[in-house]
Request: fold
Amino acid sequence: MHEYSIVEALLTRVDAEARARGATAVHRLTVRIGELSGVEIDLLATAFATFRDRTICARADLDVRTVAAAWTCPLCGQSIGRGAMLQCPRCGVPARLAQGDEIVLDRIEMEVP
Amino acid sequence: MCDTCGCGDPEVVPFDVHENILAGNERAAAHNREHFRQRHVTAINLMGSPGAGKTAVLEATARMLAGRHQLGALAGDLATDNDADRLRKAGIIAKSITTGSACHLDAAMVHRGLHDLPWRDVDYLCIENVGNLVCPAIYDLGQDANVVALSVTEGVDKPLKYPVMFMKADLVLITKMDLLPYLPDVRSEAIVDALGRVMPRPRYICVSAVTGEGMDRWAGWLEQLRTGQPRYEVVHQP
Reply:
């Protein structure tokens, strides 16, 4: 249940940003979560709904964008199929995770008087 | 204030951040790493399921390195001091980090733990994470290497079920090899095959803290981690 500590870090970050800009409320947060980030989206949403109370995000929506995992060969660019050995069958080199490990805060939409 | 139509509604302003939500932890981890580098302490984040044999591996490691290297340990434990107690009896300078209900260690907890430990006197600092194959994987602690203990009694498909943990591992210790003869459905080749599907650079050593199997190779890996690039066993494609 590390999703709770992720939400805690998220709220701290957003609070600092909102204060710096004199915002009175936050309407929406957009986050990007990768399939191989180790974060469960449902748990993240539950944790957010629980912890946003009495913060500047109390009425904010959490917009979660998921990113599918993609492994590719760093030499020839060939994509490595799901569940396959993580080595390029042609070049024999270890695959690289092109995307899918993101735990990123992309955007804050806040109310500025 | 909305000054387009004069309605008096406050203005909603989008602000782009594009920052890792765990950036605060990353900064704390970088701080720990700098401490370790300055004092030439090699730090290992040892992870694995509850009961994978993390503490037993560290006890056996201390016996093996006795007289050559001093080991230190921070043991993440939900409620007890038992692991640190066992480690101290094995000659390791050890302290518990009691996490309460927290399912993982983070870099700030490790930093606070360092205040209670004469960590500057050790060659290797082993951070024994909370037994858990999910949460600890995403927190950088400032370690030089992530090592995951995976016991043969856990079956062959743990890497496929917990890919993030194994993807982040620099080395997997396949533990409790002495029990393999009693497990007719477990073949170490199947574990190694599963590792190759979640680790782009699959590296593993089969060990037993009871018989000492593989411990010399583990010691060699630790030595090379301290002095340069470790040599690894590579999984060959079937």
Remarks:
- The beta strands of chain A are 25-34, 61-67, 70-72, 79-80, 96-99, 103-112.
- The first strand of chain A starts at residue 25 and ends at 34.
